[in-house]
Specification:
It is built from twelve helices and twelve strands. The chain is globular, with a radius of gyration of 22 Å. By secondary structure, the protein is of the alpha/beta class. A hairpin with a 3-residue loop joins strand 9 and strand 10.
Length: about 375
């Protein structure tokens, strides 16, 4: 929850990598293939060592962590072309286009402040329509003496925008970025890009799960007007596979039978979508199409070690259907995942989510997807 609104802001300064661009997957893929050259294996648990750092600091950390037999400068010259080739493939974070368009349409000044060099920033955003024109200012790490966590880049951004730092809202995904924003005297919303790291962002004024959860009105900015009956329409996405046995807690512990899908082969899709509660339509090609609400994430109450997909088909089935093919069309978002003080409160919230989904899927905006061919056509046997 945000603290009570203490002051109004008049402009928004966004970080780039990890905040509005989903760079984490690209970084992992590039380093995974690169480290093979030196007989090393990328360890995602060390990702926190490079998130939010300047390019040179991040490079030095990789060289040190993996004991590479080269200098930091040599590493940079080897890795830079590999990253450059992938910039065109970096997707916007869910909610990024929505936020940028919303602020632009309401005349809210926006700046982009990143530790990356200015030319790299401009190249990356060139693949996203309308982004460059939306920012009143773009400032890179090579335009200041010290990168984040130094406040210099944010102080300079406010100066160039001709606004008081206290009137700026910073949105950041990393600890160095949050530290920089607060040291500059700005309000800071943290959107942690690394899983299970939220507890470290104590200096932020607000911590949110994803940009989908940002409420601009908390900061005196125009509110989004696209929420409909407790739901947020999203660009539909699709996932499918055989129903597998889950953790044995759906029916037994919660009294809510979930039809779990394996996450194998879906790591890229899962990394693109924030944890939270979604809804849509579920197709069992041999049975029919049903309303569905689902959670994606670590389920804090049960403290999962891996991100999971747990759909609840809003229909009473007479028997289990393990092994049957399940296809999902996810069309809307309800809320971020949350922890609960008791099992009863968790169950009550799941039922509330179910009612919200049940009602929303009657709206034409969502009901039209019930006829999506993807839900009804069986996969070939060899897939």
């Amino acid at each position: 929850m945000a603290k009570p609104l203490s002051k109004l802001v008049s402009c928004v300064i966004l970080d780039l990598d990890g905040t509005i661009l989903n760079t984490d997957g690209i970084v992992s893929d590039v380093l995974k293939s690169y480290l093979v050259k030196y007989g090393k294996q990328w360890d995602g648990r060390r990702a926190h060592r490079i998130v939010g750092k300047t390019p040179y600091e991040a490079s030095a950390a990789v060289v040190e962590d993996y004991e590479l037999p080269i200098s930091t400068d040599e590493y940079i010259s080897e890795i830079t072309p590999r990253f450059s080739e992938q910039w065109c493939n970096i997707k916007a974070q869910p909610g990024a286009n929505r936020l940028i368009n919303h602020l632009r349409n309401h005349g809210v000044p926006m700046a982009l402040a990143s530790n990356s060099p200015r030319t790299n920033i401009e190249t990356k955003i060139s693949y996203h329509q309308g982004w460059k024109e939306s920012f009143s200012l773009i400032i890179g790490g090579d335009e200041v003496t010290s990168g984040k966590p130094s406040p210099e880049i944010y102080v300079e951004a406010a100066k160039r925008l001709n606004v008081n730092p206290s009137c700026c809202l910073v949105i950041e995904d990393s600890l160095p970025g949050v530290t920089a924003g607060k040291a500059a005297g700005m309000e800071v919303v943290a959107v942690p890009s690394l899983p299970k790291q939220s507890h470290l962002f104590t200096s932020a004024d607000e911590i949110i799960n994803s940009l989908l959860d940002l409420r601009p009105e908390k900061w005196g900015l125009p509110a989004f007007e696209d929420w409909i009956e407790g739901t947020l329409p999203i660009e539909p996405w699709y996932i499918g596979g055989p129903v597998i046995k889950g953790f044995g807690r759906g029916s037994k512990v919660l009294g809510i039978p979930t039809a779990n899908l394996s996450t194998e082969g879906y790591s890229a899709i899962l990394s693109e979508h924030p944890s939270g509660v979604y809804f849509g339509w579920a197709g069992l090609p041999t049975r029919g199409v049903y309303k569905m609400v689902m959670s994606i994430g670590w389920n804090p109450y049960f403290d999962n070690s891996e991100k999971t997909i747990e759909p609840w088909l809003l229909h009473d089935f007479n028997e289990d259907f393990y092994g049957e093919e399940l296809r999902l069309a996810i069309v809307g978002y309800i809320r971020p995942e949350a922890n609960f003080p008791s099992l009863d409160s968790l169950v009550a919230k799941i039922h509330e989510d179910g009612k919200i989904a049940e009602n929303a899927l009657e709206l034409p905006l969502y009901s039209k997807y019930k006829e999506d061919p993807y839900l009804k056509i069986s996969l070939p046997e060899n897939i």
